[in-house]
Structure formats: structure tokens, C-alpha cells
Amino acid sequence: MESSCAAAGTHLTRRALLKLCIATASALAMPVSLGPLMAEVLATRKRRPVIWLSCQECTGCTESLTRADAPTLERLLFELLSLDYHHTLQAAAGEAAEHARLRTMSEYRGEYLLVVDGSIPTGAGGGYSTIAGVSNLDLLRECAATAAAVIALGTCAAFGGLPIAAPNPTGARDVATLMREGRIPARPLVNLPGCPPIPETIAAVLLHFLVFERFPELDELNRPRVSYGATVHERCNRYHHFVEGRFAERFDDEGARRGWCLLRLGCRGPLTHNACPTLRWNQGTSYPVESGHPCIGCSEPGFWDRGGFYQALHSDPGYTQAAASTAERGETLFDDNCVYCHLPSRKPFRTASAEIPALLRSGNVRAHRFSFTDAQLTDLAEYLKTLEKQP
Questions:
Q1: Taking CA 364 as the corner, what is the angle to CA 362 and CA 365, rounded to the nearest 5 degrees?
Q2: Do β-strands 81-85 and 134-135 pair in parallel, antiparallel, or remain unpaired?
Q3: Domain regions of the chain by residue span
Q4: Which ranges constitute the DSSP H helices of the chain?
Q5: Number of alpha carbons in the 13 Å side-chain half-sphere of residue 370
Q6: For the chain, what is the mean pLDDT?
């Protein structure tokens, strides 16, 4: 069909298509031998229509997609997809843009992909963000009803991102939550969190759906395992410094200059599942930790409220850590200290939770880098009890 976003591009040669499919298969941890099969399917299949909704977002996810290298944005849009509605990239505006969306929904009912970028505000009757006079929530409900599948692109769409951080004045929600609550139709969903997501991850998931008409294997948070199955910490190029106990204490000290572990500067790598260290950014040039900045955990739920490198600026007691429950304070303590050796599983320690404070006070365990007050140990034990109750 004729796209409202771009005119037809040049034809993708067989050689270029095969190279693209082999690169995609590799990125998805699939056998490279599948490359020719993927190329054959793509060569005969018509372009898949895409409707892209921009809700509470910063356009960073679109910016990330424009930097995709395998395949490039041009090949995605001109030769593999038909991007029929996208506020930033479309040529049409006003009534013409809305007509393109409605036409795609009508002519390709049950076939088009729906990409959601940004969190969805539900406060004030949805009035915090509207498109053509329609709230994001109502527009999402309408478009999801006849979509083949939904891609929640970026942490805001996948988990609420920054907008959902306390006190969440707009009533922001993520796509999966709205589906669970029955406020929008439930459709096949993949979450691609990140602020923004890695461009090669976006492109690979899109191509996987084009070839197999389904998403790759997902984890319990609907993220592709191949990209989000391991933590940034596990894949980090500074990991050996962590193992050997070498940590930067300041951004300008000798350890920082030598590329030592950034744990003590607030790095959230052990809590963050993403492929940044392996895929990197800007065509594999680097990623934040390699460049000297701690991971801020942007691809995890609730990353802004879970502490780390950035600290809250407000002093409202309604939103301070002191006002948090005992278990919530214990969770923050665990995330800031213990998680680097003990992942937050159902039972991270062999010792019963109630006995942890006495054990740490006894001095009979191997040395820890941190010391806790009696109140902190009580908070920690309460949090660990909540983990034991998980199925």
C-alpha cells in the first residue's frame, strides 16, 4: 500500500537481503543457517503495515530506531515495513494523518503491527496527553482492538518509565498493566525496555515478527530473552575488576581513569537486564559503563524510584525513604548492597531470613564491604521474608 510516511525506496538486492538476515539471525542467537530461509520469506512477503502511537514520550525511542544499522532505518521503512502512522516521521499532518491511520486499521484489520512509544496517562480523564483531541488511552484501546500484535517500545511503554515515578501525577500506566486491568484489548505483546532501547534489538524483533509472524522467546516480563536474559553486570567489560575488588570511588580518581568497577558510584548493572555490553551503541562503538558512566538501570521496572546514581531532589516527607514501609526500605538496602553477590530470588540465602541479622552481627561470615545498623538489619530481614513468600 502507499505509505503516508515515505515514498517507495530502492529495491533490496538478494545479496543485501541475505546479509541482513544472517546478521539478524546472529543477533537473535539463532543458527546462521536460517539466514537464507529468512531471506526467502522476506523476499516473497508483502510489507507489514505499522501504526506507531506516541504517548508520554521524549522521542528518544524513535531517535534510537533511526540509528539502527542491521537493518538500517531506510531498509526497514522502505523495503520491509510500511510505516503508515508516526507523528515524527510521517509526511502527513492533521486530518490526512488520521485518515491514514483509520485506513490502515480498516484495510489491514488483524494484520498491522501496533508500536506504542511512551507511557499512557490515565489521570484527569486522560487529558494529560491527547492526539487529535483523543486521549492516549482511548486511541490505544481503539488501535489495539484490531492489531496483530503490540510492541511496547522503551521503558515508558513497557514499565511506565520516568512518568510513573512517585508521585506519578499523570496516573501513568504501561501497556501490559492496561491489558491486565482490561482497559485495553489483550493482544500478543513484547516489551522492549530501555531509555531508549538498543536499535539493533528493535530491528531484530521487528524482523523476527516479519519472518515468523510471532515474537522471539520472551521472559516473565515479556522481554526477548536473547537481549534481556543476562544482566549488564554479567556481560560488563569491567567485571574482572569487580571480581578482583577494584572499585572507582570518584569519577576523577585513579580507579576511574584505569576503568575499574563503578559499583561504588551507583552502578545498577547487577540489577539490569540488557545487552548493552554486547551490542553496544553507535554501530558497536561503546556503551555507558564502558564510557565511564554507571548503569542507571533504565530497562528495569521502577528504575527511577529504586535509587542508584541519581538522588531525589524533593524533600516532601510523603515521598522520602523514611516514609517507606520496613520491607520497602529493606528492598532498597538489598538492591544497593547485597544484590551484587546475592540475586533477589525466592530465597537468596541458605540462612532463614529471621536469622540474617544475628548472623551478620556475629562476625562469623566472610567479610562484607558494607556495615549495617540494627534498624537496617531489621528492614533487610523483613524484605527477605517477602521474597520467601513468592511462589
A1: 115
A2: unpaired
A3: 14-227, 230-306, 317-388
A4: 14-27, 35-44, 60-66, 73-75, 94-107, 136-144, 155-159, 175-180, 199-212, 225-228, 232-235, 239-243, 254-257, 276-279, 326-333, 356-362, 374-388
A5: 15
A6: 82
| pLDDT tens-place string over residues 21-68 | 666 666 665 656 656 656 656 566 678 899 999 999 999 998 887 776
Longest dimension (CA), the chain: 72
Closest CA to 144 of 178, 80, 187: 187
Angle made by CA atoms 118, 122, 125, in degrees to the nearest 5: 130
Q: Extract the residue ranges of the chain whose pLDDT is less than 70.
A: 1-45, 68-79, 307-324, 340-341, 343-347, 365-370, 390-391
Q: Is the dihedral of CA 285, 287, 289, 293 positive or negative?
A: positive
In angstroms, rounded to a whole number, what is the distance separating the alpha carbons of residues 270 and 235? 10
Residue 73: half-sphere exposure toward Cβ, Cα within 13 Å: 13
d(Cα 269, Cα 247) in Å, to the nearest integer? 14
Nearest one of 76, 98, 104 to 1, comparing CA atoms: 104
Backbone φ/ψ region at 166: left (φ over 0), alpha (ψ -120 to 50), beta: beta
Buried (b) or exposed (e) across 120-147, using 16+ Cβ within 10 A?
Answer: bbbeeebebbebeeebbbebbbbbbebb
Among the listed residues 227, 234, 236, 241, the one whose alpha carbon sits nearest the alpha carbon of residue 290:
236
Q: Which CATH class is domain 14-227?
A: alpha beta
Cα distance between residue 83 and residue 92, in whole Å: 12
Q: Which of 214, 208, 240, 192 is nearest to 28 (CA)?
A: 208
Dist. CA 377–CA 329, nearest whole Å: 10
Domain 230-306 class in CATH? few secondary structures
Return the pLDDT at 36.
65
Residue 216's SS3 state is coil
Q: For residues 103 and 110, what is the distance between their CA atoms, to the nearest angstrom? A: 13
For the segment 143-182, what is each residue's pLDDT rounded down to a tens digit?
999 999 999 999 999 999 999 988 899 999 999 999 999 9
DSSP 124-164: GGGTTSEETTEEHHHHHHHHHTT-SEEEEESHHHHH-TTTT
- Which amino acid is located at 124 in the chain? A
Look at residue 325 in the predicted model and tell me its pLDDT.
Answer: 78
Cα separation of the two ends of the chain = 49
What's the rounded Cα separation, in Å, for the pair 96 and 339? 52
